[in-house]
Amino acid sequence: MSPSRVESLPSYEYPNETREQLEYAELEALDISKLSVQGGKQALADQVLRFINKNGFFYVTGHGFSDEEVRRQYALCKAFFELPLEEKLEYSCDTAKGDFRGYKPQSTGKLAGRDNDERYNIPKFTPEHERPHPQLIRDHWDEIKDFSLKIHNDVLIPLLRLFAYVLEIDEDYLIERHRYEAEGLEYLRYMKYHPRSKEADAQAGNIWAKGHTDYNTLTFLFHQPVAGLQVQTPEGKWQYVKSPRDAIIVNIADALEFLSGGYLKSTVHRVVRAPEDQTSDPRLSLIYFARPEANIILKPVSSPLLQRLGLSAETDRFSHDVTAEEWARARIAKDHRFRTGLVNQPEKEIIAGVNQKYYD
């Protein structure tokens, strides 16, 4: 079919905040603008050391993104999902092979309860990821690229340097394993959760995305006022995550847990049915997934902090060396099998003796 052109991109306005009284997690905010002032790095490191064992979710402020920049990406996100389904399907990702680049449709019919979202993943802007994209994306290529690069350079890199400082290792250690130009898959995700009837949600236990950890390094979630994201506390309790308009929500993911010997813990989270005063609104999300380079082996770093805590070998759990790409592809492929009904129960082992954990 001929590609759809969007002649003008209307300004995006956020849905209203919920008025319901929800139980929110108390999350710390790291103001990364302090990294450029004297004593700021140590102050932020002290803050990380105080809270990181309790929760791998936190906020980042002082990130340099304007409200207008973020809403512009949401305008693109909204416009993409309004394209005809048959056009979006031309850019489908091959999740059966562990590849998340491109479009993933919403599941329907008997499988609808397993998968209530559609996604478009735009990989980092390097030659290995050259691939077709819808005309809408091509028409706004440069601004999407600038937005993605800004996340990598101005948010991810400072955080990786800060975490290396906390671990008392070379401050470039983690950065050198996340070089933008190197082979590997980071991507920006446009995502849309579809509203469901109260009855349909009840059949799925009011779950829109089952409790899980992410498999990358860090996940960045931009402001999203439709409540539904929940984090699991160390005690096993689910609490909502508030999304301040001026903050990016960050969660630690599997790869960083492996690299940090279990000190920086991959955070369990899920998405549930929105509060009643928001159930008619689609839940758009703007997310960036940072991931180590493809060939990085997920082994714990040698760290004085980890040695003092007795954690240096805690997450060296693989029966043989596993790279970041192997880990990610294995997890994506396992998720694909369950989501598409190839298996009726989530499979346990992911790769090399390490099992998937389920939380619902």
- What radius of gyration results from the CA coordinates? 20 Å
CATH class: Mainly Beta
Mean pLDDT: 89
- Looking at the chains present, what oligomeric state does this protein adopt? single chain
Shape descriptor = globular
**Into which percent range does the helicity of residues fall?**
25-40%
Structural class: alpha+beta
Separation, N- and C-terminal Cα atoms = 41 Å
- Largest sheet: number of strands, sense, barrel closure: 8 strands, mixed
Secondary structure tally, helices: 9
Strand order of the largest sheet: 1-2-10-7-12-5-4-3
Proportion of strand residues:
15-25%
Instruction: Find the CATH superfamily.
Output: B-lactam Antibiotic, Isopenicillin N Synthase, Chain
Instruction: Name the poorly predicted regions.
Output: none
CATH fold topology: Jelly Rolls
How many separate domains?
Answer: 1
CATH architecture: Sandwich
Which sequence of SSEs, written as H and E, runs from N to C?
Answer: EHEHHEEHHEHEEEEEHEEHHEE
Number of strands: 14
Organism: Hypoxylon rubiginosum
Protein name: 1-aminocyclopropane-1-carboxylate oxidase
Describe this structure in words.
The protein is an alpha+beta fold and 360 residues long. The protein has one domain (29-355): Jelly Rolls. It is built from nine helices and 14 strands. The protein has helices at residues 40-51, 67-81, 85-89, 135-139, 141-166, 198-203, 254-259, 304-309, 324-339, and strands spanning 29-31, 57-61, 102-104, 117-123, 187-193, 207-212, 218-221, 229-232, 238-240, 248-252, 269-272, 283-290, 349-351, 354-355. The protein has an eight-stranded mixed sheet. Helix 1 (40-51) links the parallel strand 1 (29-31) and strand 2. Helix 1 packs across helix 5 (141-166). It is globular. The mean pLDDT is 89.
